[in-house]
Design a protein that fits this description.
The protein is of the alpha+beta class. The protein has one domain: Endonuclease/exonuclease/phosphatase (Deoxyribonuclease I, Chain A, 4-Layer Sandwich). It has 6 helices and 13 strands. Helix 1 links the parallel strand 1 (6-13) and strand 2. Helix 1 (27-34) crosses helix 2 (53-61). The longest helix is centred in the last third of the chain and has 14 residues, at 182-195. The protein starts with 5 loop residues before the first strand and ends with a strand.
């Protein structure tokens, strides 16, 4: 970026690189099209054998990669009964999912006994921050696990240099409102005040929550992107957000469906 005080940030929940029935999509091409200086990937799958999503994107597109595991589990192979839709309408039974998380809470014997689960390769379900900007230091904010959640939540803080100043880039993946996520939002807000302080900062995440309550729970942070992001094929809600503090918002947009169940979002921001 040289001496410019502007940069582009993007957030994309890549759903482990597969659709709802385990069919791979071209997540590398999607990330290339985003062409962001800073890219946060949620559900960035890291298989036990071979390179993961974040590592592959980093090597191909010239990013430094930082990852934090939130859970372990399995990603199922393509379902031979899959139709043209991402997932059958209103069919949220665990046995039909393509991602199984079992490191924090055991799955039912109905799921673990299924051929789909047993044939699924093991790995780690991560949040990743990728950057082309110079990195100063990194830190992990541990948010713990809510009792119903299948992941231990955390925020990954990567300090980058922009025009000679330090800017905090925070990547996270919040749990659902039905799992009492406001408890984690309160912890995150306090931790950001402590870790980031008054420094310019940006948080990019699948927040699993609409914009107005995010604004209430993260007071002092401004939304850089507004628009529906989920479900990707016919979005009716915005659950993916980029919020900033002590940064100028120069533009923001929701990008088209790229193959995951969430649409990517992009924001251009700058030092004030």
């Amino acid at each position: 970026m040289g001496g410019t005080s502007e940069f582009v940030a993007a957030s994309f929940n890549v759903h482990a690189g597969v659709d709802g029935w385990g069919r791979p999509f071209d997540w590398l091409a999607a990330c290339r099209l985003l062409d962001a200086d800073v890219l946060v990937l949620e559900e960035a799958w890291q298989p036990d054998e071979g390179p993961g999503v974040a590592e592959t994107v980093g090597q191909a597109l010239g990013y430094a990669v930082y990852e934090q595991s939130l859970a372990r589990g399995r990603v199922a192979l393509p379902d031979p009964q899959a139709d043209h839709r991402w997932m059958r309408s209103l069919d949220w039974r665990s046995v039909n999912h393509s991602i199984y998380l079992d490191s924090e809470r055991p799955l039912s014997s109905h799921v673990t006994g299924s051929a789909r689960f047993q044939s699924a390769p093991k790995g780690s379900w991560n949040v990743a921050v990728l950057t082309r900007l110079p990195v100063v230091r990194t830190e992990v904010i541990d948010l713990g696990r809510l009792w119903r959640d299948r992941a231990r939540r955390a925020a990954l803080v990567v300090w980058v240099e922009v025009a000679g100043r330090e800017v905090a880039i925070v990547g996270t993946h919040m749990t659902h409102l039905t799992y009492e996520s406001p408890l984690h939002y309160a912890s995150l807000a306090r931790a950001l005040d402590r870790v980031v302080g008054d420094a310019p900062a940006l948080v990019a995440a699948d927040m699993n929550l609409w914009g107005p309550p995010v604004r209430v729970l993260l007071r002092g942070w401004r939304r850089a992107v507004k628009g529906q992001t989920w479900p990707a094929w016919r979005p009716h809600s915005q659950v993916d957000h980029i919020v900033v503090r002590n940064l100028s918002i120069l533009g923001g947009e929701v990008r088209p469906d790229a193959g995951s169940d969430h649409r990517p979002i992009v924001a251009r921001v700058g030092l004030p």
